[in-house]
Design a protein that fits this description.
With 209 residues, the chain is an alpha+beta fold. It folds into two domains: 77 residues, no CATH class; 115 residues, Alpha-Beta Plaits (2-Layer Sandwich). 55% of the residues lie in helices and 11% in strands. A four-stranded antiparallel β-sheet has the order 2-3-1-4.
Length: 209
């Protein structure tokens, strides 16, 4: 089945702004470009590991630097987050993301309980299906956030993302309706879109197969 085409809502930077961003990046040494993301990942490593000896701190710093080198290009993909002269890590909506994580954790708990019920039920009432939907999101990081959130939630797995179009495998009818309810828009799509707000965002559309 074909999905209705939704026009992009977040256009690439004008040529002049793109040149400004590129010129700014070229002026900054490579390691300095990586510093904000490396520092953020290293802080997360320290918090989660709880280890403060030289060995673990060295492993954490090396891991953070390697990840930054591999993913820094993702942060610079157009359309960029924030003004051209500001590094995307600094412009990222961290406070909104921190507010989103508890909600995502609660959705994971609820979905886990639902899967436990399905597995323990004598008839095992599963209804696997493919869910296709489109949700206009302004940046690759927004699409990555939504795709990973869906996969982290038990009962749903993101199979493919192409532009604004998502293909998801849902284990049950309830899981599928959570992504594309009979009316309105899926709550997860709404939450992720709220992390990266735009002035003219359109609601998502989708079908099941």
């Amino acid at each position: 089945m074909q999905l209705d085409t939704i026009s992009p809502i977040f256009h690439p930077l004008p040529a002049q702004d793109r040149q400004t961003r590129v010129a700014h990046v070229r002026k900054v040494p490579r390691l300095r470009q990586l510093f904000p993301l490396t520092l953020t990942l290293f802080a997360l490593w320290v918090i989660l590991s709880g280890k403060f000896d030289v060995f673990h701190l060295s492993i954490g710093a090396a891991s953070a630097l390697c990840i930054s080198m591999g993913t820094n290009r993702l942060l610079l993909l157009p359309p960029t987050i924030g003004p051209p002269a500001v590094h995307p890590v600094a412009a990222h909506p961290w406070l909104r993301l921190l507010a989103y994580l508890p909600w995502l954790g609660w959705q994971i708990v609820l979905s886990s309980l639902q899967i436990v019920f399905v597995v323990l039920h004598p008839t095992m009432p599963i209804s696997p299906r493919l869910v296709r939907f489109q949700v206009p999101l302004p940046h690759a990081l927004a699409r990555l956030t939504l795709a990973n959130s869906i996969t982290l939630t038990p009962g749903t797995v993101t199979l493919d993302v192409e532009g604004d179009a998502f293909l998801v495998h849902a284990l049950t009818e309830t899981s599928a309706h959570g992504l594309i309810p009979p009316t309105g828009e899926g709550s997860m799509q709404q939450r992720v879109a709220g992390l990266y707000p735009t002035s003219d965002r359109r609601p998502s559309t989708g079908v099941t197969a």
